[in-house]
Amino acid sequence: MKVLVIGATEAAGSKEAQYKVDYQYQYQFAKAAKENGVKNHVLVSAGNASAKSLLFYSRMKGELEDSVKELGFEKLIIMQPPLLVRKASERKAEVFAEKIISFLNKLGLFKWYKPMPTNLLAKAMIRSAKVLGKGTFTLNASGITKYV
To answer: Most buried by CB count within 10 Å: which residue of 16, 19, 46, 112?
Structure first.
């Protein structure tokens, strides 16, 4: 199994730079994979992805999902994780967001948006690819946790 997981943050410097990494590179990889006979693809998107969103990031991820669907993989799994957290993250905004969301989760709010460690997402990517049959599957946070 070959895996490519890339993404950018605001540290990319501009919306154009973020679009290049988060849309163009991922789409080009998926397209090249399809053109070279790859039948199955797992795409990491975002929990709030929608091509109709007013938010740049959510709209970009939704457009990416739509474009990759059009490639026609036999099996396409789209992961829509909540906030992803890494061990020893140095991104202040990421650490702050994780603390706020975790606090709200303890109050019973936003339970569907519980921060997810990247290693659990990786496990779910591998397991879902092994278990799911042909078709297109979109897994949100609760769907992803079924494969951890």
So the answer is: 46
